[in-house]
């Protein structure tokens, strides 16, 4: 397992004279917290369901109206905590487009399973790598990037469905042989402030793998799509 990343402290708050801007920032922060929590429980659930660590290293907690398993191993717990702390900074700053959990065989070094969570932020224009001129403007269609308002119960029900799918995925995913480890990859905007402990990485794709699209969930500010890739058993 790679060294856990360290948190970086930086202030992102900007004073705004517009109340609507403040309301939007509060909504975005609340939505980011929901997504962040979802990621934390996703990492724990995948590690438990896929047997990356022994079942006795996990403890049961109630979340989303479900019994969720979270690691009780101090080292793994500290590693996830540091990942989540940095992730929170990037999420609040609207910098993340993708989070990936890769399971790798310790014996062969081969990536055997890859869980990808694509993050879409409503209202955030897709940035081109080359900076656009101020004259390049386009009118968005009325229904483009328009989030629907949802209650907390509706959001929780969608998240619940995803975790039920992750749990059920053991029925079609090949059994993981031998000892495995995991890495977390984050796709952040190019202008993100990155701590030194976070190194560049390749995509860690699964060679000749199968892909299964799972459910998605959305808040008033974010949409998260889930995809699992896995290597077919030889």
Q: Tally of extended strands? A: 7
Please, what is the average pLDDT? 77
Helical proportion? 25-40%
- Report the structural category: alpha+beta
Cα gyration radius (Å): 19 Å
SSE layout:
Layout: H1 19-49, E1 58-63, E2 66-71, H2 74-92, E3 96-105, E4 111-121, H3 152-168, E5 180-188, E6 210-218, E7 222-230
Antiparallel strand pairs: 1-2, 3-4, 3-5, 4-7, 6-7
Helix pairs in contact: 1-2, 1-3
Quick tags:
single chain; 234 residues; alpha+beta; Cell Cycle, Spindle Assembly Checkpoint Protein, Chain A; two-stranded antiparallel ribbon; 3 helices; globular; disordered N terminus; mitosis; HORMA_dom; cell division; Mad2-like
Overall description:
The chain is α+β, with helices and mostly antiparallel strands and 234 residues long. The protein has a single domain, classed as 2-Layer Sandwich (Cell Cycle, Spindle Assembly Checkpoint Protein, Chain A). 29% of the residues lie in helices and 26% in strands. Strands 5-3-4-7-6 form a five-stranded antiparallel β-sheet, with helices on one face. A two-stranded antiparallel ribbon has the order 1-2. Helix 1 runs parallel beside helix 3. It is globular, with a radius of gyration of 19 Å.
């Amino acid at each position: 397992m790679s060294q856990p990343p360290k948190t970086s402290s930086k202030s992102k708050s900007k004073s705004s004279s517009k109340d609507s801007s403040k309301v939007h920032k509060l909504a975005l922060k609340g939505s980011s917290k929901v997504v962040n929590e979802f990621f934390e429980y996703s990492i724990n659930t995948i590690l438990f369901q896929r047997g990356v660590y022994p079942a006795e290293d996990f403890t049961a907690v109630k979340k989303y109206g479900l019994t969720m398993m979270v690691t009780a191993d101090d080292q793994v717990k500290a590693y996830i905590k540091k990942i989540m702390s940095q992730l929170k900074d990037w999420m609040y700053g609207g910098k993340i487009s993708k989070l990936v959990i890769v399971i790798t065989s310790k014996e062969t070094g081969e990536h055997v399973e890859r869980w990808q969570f694509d993050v879409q932020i409503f209202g955030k224009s897709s940035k081109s790598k080359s900076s656009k001129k101020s004259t390049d403007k386009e009118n968005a269609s009325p229904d483009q990037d328009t989030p629907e308002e949802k209650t907390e119960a509706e959001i929780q029900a969608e998240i619940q469905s995803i975790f039920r799918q992750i749990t059920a995925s053991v029925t079609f995913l090949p059994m993981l042989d031998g000892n495995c480890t995991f890495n977390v990859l984050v796709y952040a905007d190019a202008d993100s402030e990155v701590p030194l402990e976070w190194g560049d990485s390749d995509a860690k794709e699964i060679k000749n793998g199968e892909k299964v699209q799972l459910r998605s969930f959305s808040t008033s500010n974010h949409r998260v799509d889930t995809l699992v890739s896995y290597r077919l058993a030889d």
